[in-house]
Amino acid sequence: MVDHTHQDIDAATGTPTTGHEWDGIKELNTPLPRWWLWLFYACIVWAFGYWVLYPAIPLPGGHTKGMLNWASRDAVQKDVDNLKAIRAPFVGKIEQASLQQISADPKLAEFARAYGRSAFGNNCAACHGSGGQGNAGYPNLAGDRWLWGGSLDQIAATITHGVRAGDAEGHDPTASAGMPAWSQMGLNTQQIDQVADYVESLIKPTNADVSAGQKIFTENCVACHGEDAKGNLDLGAPNLMSKSKWLYGSDRATVVQTIANGRAGQMPAWGAKLDQATIKSLTIYVHSLGGGQ
Fold this sequence. Notes:
This protein has eleven helices and four strands, in the order ββαββαααααααααα. By secondary structure, the protein is mainly alpha-helical. Among the domains are: 34-63, no CATH class; 94-171 and 273-287, Cytochrome c-like domain (Cytochrome Bc1 Complex, Chain D, domain 2, Orthogonal Bundle); 182-261, Cytochrome Bc1 Complex, Chain D, domain 2. It has a two-stranded antiparallel sheet with strand order 1-2. Helix 2 (72-96) packs across helix 11.
């Protein structure tokens, strides 16, 4: 039993103990510093004040509003409204000007690029990359890889109507475009391999006989890719003579997969989600990345 009639002093440290002992281990009596206690009490008082002044306590029907009636959403909205007010003069000019007029006006073009870069980061970077560099299946917007054209008007049309996006108004010129799955269109495995041999020979010269694949290509593929295999912007058919423009890759397995199963990638129609000033600014920005025609 512990004797509580006198203060026990720890022999090792010279510090009084609380009199509590467990398995020979004594609890030293070392109170918290006064400054720490006062700071702790002040935090408690501040917390009660916060609960009263600001929204803090969740309730079944919402939460307490606080005496100041402040909300973080309102503060953010105020900042957004202030930013819109600053941008308004330039945004108004962009809405009224054509893409060519915006591009020809240095100050307006500079603003459009900055505005478009912000919109690109919020809406487009997830697929095309933060710098428009693209990825397998997603076009490189900075490398002259244009399936539907790289002029200002063509870029604007692609952004507005998307690619195979099912435009409800029927304005999407890409709706019926797509690479067919030739394994379901009459070509067998051998024929698909022969076409793959020929297509690969366009960028990798070979001494092998690819005439069989060339014959199949002429009979089935030139309608979209052209007799010179340089593609067709009206149909979104890529230029097969340039390896850098192969959207899904040029390795053997990918080429065979593309011919056999087809390709029908999609891009959202941003015309229903973004205003005209934003679409025009996006167009100017994308065109400026280095691949604009």
